[in-house]
């Protein structure tokens, strides 16, 4: 059974979220990914979130742009942790997606990541950290991932 | 049967929306007003919007603050016109509510008004303009309302 | 006689609004489209708005950029519903157009859509929703349009 | 005959603009002040601007808040210089008024001052500078005003 | 042993975070709370985060204002999930705290909540959701908490 | 003798301001144009502004980007009207130039135009309006210019 | 002879800068403080900056609000380090002062601190750090100051 | 021994900071440059800053983007002056980097430069100004650099 459920609000969000999907594969964490919109397929979204919760999914990742209601609406239907990724937008540069995703009213939390691809990558890493709370194996792999990043930076040579 | 359905996302929004309610009474347009949240009562909200549409409501007014998903979620469940009022907020001064309400993705429109009380009043006037498309009586009263405003401004005396 | 009157503030806005025009044709709703500016042709604009109202137009759509006075000035001359589309701008990315269009003072409402092409499309859909209040046929077509959108999203396949 | 014509969009703007009026008196420049709104009294505004131009007014000062179309609409009806004062607003702190006043499209200029009372005072000083282009007496008084300011600052003692 | 570790960047943040602390007590989840600053006590902070991780803490909540480096620095030293709360600020109204907390570079995720007290409350609820991934009892209590919220909203009566 | 004095803060601003220069030629108004920076050539700037005032220049146009001190510093040295043009910038899109130019403290006015090329064109038109206060010939040409703009817009045909 | 020269653009800035002055006294660093405006006393400012440089002043601190040209203009007249403090403003909350102070064009640097009192305090600490580059005694006192801050934070007790 | 220590948060920042490095060479000031991240290599960063301070480095330049904690974290570990350069970002255009770098809490100062390449160049010039406080030779070269800039601007010819 998959543990992470990735939902994106529009097929065009796939470009941003692809990195998320690749990183999940790299970590060999079973996941599902689906396009469902809070505004265009509200009923399918509600049904899907409930079904996923019943199937025992451990974390949701919801990525959407503009008036990004997606993560908040997913969170409204579950007490499984929901991570929100604000998709970059043409005009307001993702400021609209960011404020819509992060400024949740008290009572229904969404864990907002940074705008765009950086946030998409961090969404997976954060999902893994959540799974790592009780899974020592994932914790170990996360530490190795960090070590790798550290190593990449340490070996950087600057041509002066 | 009521024609205008006012939904606000939180009991604290009532202060902003009270003016809307008073203006609706003044215009003697039958209406219903209810507190329902896209994040805290998603199912009641969906059921209510569908029931209202079935009862033949002609316009929705949805007022919410912060990550203001309300108007968009109402619009997701109906093709009855939805007017959104972004409620002012403590920190970002309603900029979050404004962007969440106005930046709807293509396909599901919300008619966004200005932030706070000005927007709440305009929401009713716009609802009346919609009803006025086929109701000559409402059109007449709207013109009289405008004449009154005009008269108020024209009679203003400035002490120099 | 046409029912929807589209006004844009500058010939360069046509690129953004073209989608609106195409969608109106697709829905077979009779409409007129004209370039008239609140700043460069104020008198022609006033005369045109009044004439359109007399001809029985049911909804205005006004699209303009920068200090986007157009929608507000159209609304000042009529009690027919006015939908505003903030055109994207080179420097402030449409934030100027958005605030100029949406932040109407109390008394003269404008229904603001999202910035740019998304807003242009939603402007037509909202105009149709207004017409649909008393026209069951339009309501039916709007529902079919929504069904289509839903279907498009549901059939999206993600390559994992 | 008065030379400066002050127009404000709402009676509530008087508080901000009062300083303008007092400074005009102090400089003994004949002026008129009137409340007229681009949105609530568009026709009276148009007629008034044209009449003022015919009466030989030399400068307009237009102060308005929110979607501040006033200065732009005044400028649309005259080639007499128009100075715009963006009034501070409750929610967006005058950012809406500022962008609506300053971001005029090419062809119809408005001279935008700073937000609120600072801008109101500067509007008069700028009007006087315009009159001073051909009036040596006003130029002299403006220089004296500057000297006074300079003197005020120079004599400031700081308690260390 | 406590499961949630609350760190705030300044004693003045306590006012915002008090609600967090109260809610943790209400849920009877053992926790520790400490004032430690990324800028003023960087070494104590690093040592504390590592010690907390060793002690088996399951979630960090980090609340800070202005250039809010706290949550990011905590996240830099652990792979335990870190929830960030941007504290409201006097001048930029928390926009500085928000962007500093949410715009994390790829590789080191922080789960950002909304600005101020709303975010502080949601930080606890999100921490509980994380614990709830493997703790059915907490999940149950969270659902009851949601039910309560729902009930509060449903029983709201509006005086028309 | 030239009547309009155009100063730009950097050679790279010429691209934006070229239109200004062309329009001044088109109107056959004698002018001078010079690159002088408030930050890099403060003394030359001061000396130049004073010399220009002595030579009887009637209006200054000052265009600068980023922390655009230019227009304000010019205004600090003269009571001749100063028109400011905020140059667009790479990162903050001219918002920095705009706020630096428009938010003048009370006492020293600058007439701020819109950001970039639109503002550059309007700067000339506004300079001409100032000259037109006492020059009937310029007024006439300005009206003709407006008529032309109006004509351009009126003859626009939209392909439906 | 004093080593630090504090300049503020307006007597009203004293409230913000008072803390700076007190901290300088506490550190027993000789300093001068003066009100001089880039816009209202440009010549006195230029003369003063040059005289201060000749007197051997080691650091300037320049505090100003709105279109805060002060720090940049001081920097234009000296190669002595200039620290800028953006004063908080009524409408734009210091965002205008911040962008005017920090966004200096390449070639003339200003060291910008945070908005308001926090920045005023940091301006002194940064001035001391500059002096400390060659003054071991100041470096020692700065470290003691940091130790004190650290101690204050460490001893903070939170009532749970 | 090198006097200036340049740290950048990511290899991709090199493009922005290259100009800094070149200018340091041009001024023949010994320096070191290194990639170290506050989030990805926190321990290496801390150790490096302390080692650099011990080696007698006189100024730090820290360049980072997004939630740019780098300059603040460097400043947290030293009382040597730290100059921060906010790197431009894809979505928020460097506004996130700017606010994260400049809005330091009271007690730990960072000298923030403008966003991007302009700021990178100014960082070096400001570092040189700090060194110039006690090094007459550097002061002389800085003045010559300014003279050169001035000369470049003065010789600019505009084609009218």
Summarize the structure.
Chain A is of the alpha/beta class. Chain A is about 50% helix and about 15% strand.
Can you lay out the helices and strands and say which pair or pack?
Eight copies of one chain form a homooctamer.
Chain A: E1 4-8, H1 14-26, E2 31-35, H2 42-54, E3 59-64, H3 70-76, E4 82-86, H4 95-102, E5 111-112, H5 117-132, H6 136-155
Parallel strand pairs in A: 1-2, 1-3, 3-4, 4-5
Helix pairs in contact in A: 1-5, 5-6
CATH architecture group name of chain A: 3-Layer(aba) Sandwich
* Secondary structural class of chain A: alpha/beta
Describe the strand arrangement of the main beta sheet of chain A, using strand numbers.
2-1-3-4-5
| Arithmetic mean of pLDDT of chain A | 96
Question: What would your notes on this structure say?
Answer:
8 copies of one chain form a homooctamer. Chain A has 160 residues and is an alpha/beta fold. Chain A has one domain: Rossmann fold, CATH 3.40.50.1970. Chain A contains 6 helices and 5 strands. Chain A has a 5-stranded parallel sheet, with helices on both faces. In chain A, helix 3 links the parallel strand 3 and strand 4. In chain A, helix 5 crosses helix 6. The first copy, chain A, is globular, with a radius of gyration of 16 Å. The model of chain A has no long low-confidence stretch (mean pLDDT 96). The interface between A and E is large, with 39 and 39 residues.
């Amino acid at each position: 059974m998959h543990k992470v459920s990735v939902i994106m609000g529009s097929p065009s969000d796939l470009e941003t979220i692809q990195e998320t999907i690749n990183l999940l594969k790299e970590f060999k964490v079973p996941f599902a990914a689906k396009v469902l919109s809070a505004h265009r397929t509200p009923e399918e979204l509600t049904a899907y979130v409930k079904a996923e919760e019943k199937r025992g999914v451990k974390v949701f990742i919801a990525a959407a742009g503009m008036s990004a209601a997606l993560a908040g609406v997913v969170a409204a239907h579950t007490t499984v942790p929901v991570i929100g990724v604000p998709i970059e937008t043409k005009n307001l540069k993702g400021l609209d997606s960011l404020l819509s995703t992060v400024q949740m009213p008290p009572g229904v939390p969404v864990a907002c990541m940074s705008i765009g691809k950086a946030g998409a990558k961090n969404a997976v890493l954060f999902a893994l950290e959540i799974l790592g709370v009780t899974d020592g194996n994932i914790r170990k792999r996360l530490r190795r991932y960090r070590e790798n990043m550290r190593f990449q930076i340490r070996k950087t040579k600057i041509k002066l």
